[in-house]
Design a protein that fits this description.
Number of strands: 5
Largest sheet: 5 strands, parallel
CATH architecture of the largest domain: Orthogonal Bundle
CATH superfamily of the largest domain: Winged helix-like DNA-binding domain superfamily/Winged helix DNA-binding domain
Distance between the termini: 60 Å
CATH topology of the largest domain: Arc Repressor Mutant, subunit A
Structural class: alpha/beta
Order of helices and strands: EHEHEHEHEHHHHHHH
Strand order of the largest sheet: 2-1-3-4-5
Number of helices: 11
Oligomer: single chain
């Protein structure tokens, strides 16, 4: 089965050069590119992306400030390859602290840039997702409570973690058995097969013994009446979408409150 290319945004004054390099590799699809920081931030907010190639010499906005903004504003952030210009240790440390997944010198050869970008894009979860990880887990847990899913079931923890992961990295849904279940298995020290089986048991149990009102509120008419329950993939995808939306709303509200608070400062 042919794998879809990684969707990449290029934010660099040398974007034409990077477009040429990425255009020669079928692993990548350049969605948009520019050399202006404010424009890049606006466009990245509106695009479904797998990776961002970010140049430290971005014009009109500090590249590290852009990284920080993405971490605060996006419920599903892209992975980031940061190209630094300047003293090695200083910029590597600053970029890592602000959420870059991979860091490379802007003077690197094309093959090295492509390798680092592919490595960043293939990472299960972006570093930029970390600031809101707790919020996603809390939201998933609250929604599962509405369903009255039994927390004593092994699949409860796997579903909570899976919904939080999918909410910030929907690319994982491309392959549940190849990407998501192994990620959960690594987190909990079990096999992907054990994850799949435990999730299936928890979903079946919830649709047999859980809250009908909660199920209707979250899933509505999207559940097949003949089957009586969704598949693992359907259940996790729908739950993750609710988590993503609610986390995004919470982000907007907290960011707005922070801005209002700063405006009131003397």
């Amino acid at each position: 089965m042919k794998r879809e290319p990684f969707r990449v945004y290029i934010a660099s004054p040398a974007y034409l050069q990077y477009e040429k390099w990425l255009g020669q590799d079928a692993s990548f699809l350049v969605t948009e590119s520019c050399g202006d920081g404010p424009q890049a931030l606006r466009e990245i907010r509106a695009l479904p992306l797998d990776a961002l190639l970010l140049d430290g010499a971005l014009q009109g906005m500090d590249a590290l400030a852009l990284l920080s903004a993405l971490g605060k504003e996006l419920p599903a952030p892209p992975r980031v390859l940061y190209l630094y210009r300047g003293p090695d240790a200083v910029w590597r440390s600053a970029a890592r602290e602000n959420g870059a997944d991979e860091i490379l010198s802007a003077a690197s050869a094309p093959a090295d840039v492509l390798f680092a970008l592919r490595k960043a894009a293939a990472a299960p979860l972006p570093r930029l997702a970390k600031p809101w990880e707790k919020a996603r887990l809390e939201t998933a847990e609250r929604l599962m409570g509405q369903l009255q899913m039994n927390p004593a079931l092994k699949g409860w923890a796997y579903i909570r973690f899976a919904a939080a992961c999918l909410a910030c990295a929907p690319q994982l849904a491309r392959s549940f058995s190849g990407s998501l279940y192994p990620l959960i298995g690594t987190e909990y020290g079990v096999s992907p097969f054990s994850v799949e089986r435990a999730v299936r048991t928890a979903v079946e149990n919830t649709f047999l013994q859980g809250s009908l009102n909660g199920i209707q509120a979250l899933f509505g008419l999207s559940v097949d009446a003949d089957k009586g329950k969704p598949t693992n993939a359907e259940f996790l995808s729908m739950l993750a979408e609710h988590v993503r939306r609610e986390t995004a709303r919470r982000m907007r509200e907290e960011n707005a409150a922070a801005i209002q608070s700063s405006d009131l400062l003397p």
